[in-house]
Specification:
Layout (H helix, E strand, L loop, with lengths): L29 E3 L2 E7 L13 H20 L3 E10 L8 E11 L3 E9 L5 E11 L2 H8 L3 H11 L4
Antiparallel strand pairs: 1-2, 2-4, 3-6, 4-5, 5-6
């Protein structure tokens, strides 16, 4: 995989990835083997204990990364059914982290995605396994108010460009 940037920009107001959500994380992803990767730094405003990223925010980052792994690797929409998160080491605010998502297995109905957060030097900080259920684009359009054609274009832009 050439680790190229995923070109797609979410057309809605997603907290995790939308470029238009002024309070959001504005995460950007790159293609990786079986999924995607991102680098980011989370500000003090997202702390639990002062200086440490809130666990709920870390779970959100892992969930968003898992969704993009599915978009990038399989070109499909899915919703999280269950996620198990393991907090291994504290994650400091204002410090770069590397977040990876990898599709472990999938069938026509569901998928399992493994995500991890590492320090830039490779120390494992947090990881999660999540189960996903695929949903029709029409269902996402109905729930989000975004036209199906726009959503199909989004998925197309998530796939590796050849």
């Amino acid at each position: 995989m050439d680790n190229a940037e995923i070109k797609a920009r979410w057309p809605g107001a997603c907290f995790g990835c939308s470029p238009t959500n002024t309070n959001g994380l504005k995460l950007r992803f790159r293609h990786a083997e079986q999924g995607c990767v991102t680098r980011c730094s989370l500000p003090d405003s997202l702390c639990g204990f002062d200086g440490l990223v809130h666990g709920g925010i870390l779970s959100t980052v892992l969930d968003e990364t898992a969704a993009y792994a599915l978009f990038a690797h399989l070109g499909r929409f899915a919703v999280t059914r269950e996620m198990t998160t393991r907090f291994i080491k504290p994650v400091a605010t204002n410090t770069e982290i590397v977040v990876e998502g990898r599709v472990v297995r999938h069938d026509k109905v569901k998928a399992l995605v493994h995500c991890s957060i590492h320090s830039p030097d490779g120390l494992l900080l947090t990881e999660a396994d999540s189960d996903w259920v695929f949903v029709k684009t029409s269902r996402i359009a109905s729930l989000s108010g975004v036209e199906e054609e726009v959503l199909r274009g989004f998925l197309e832009q998530c796939r590796p460009q050849t």
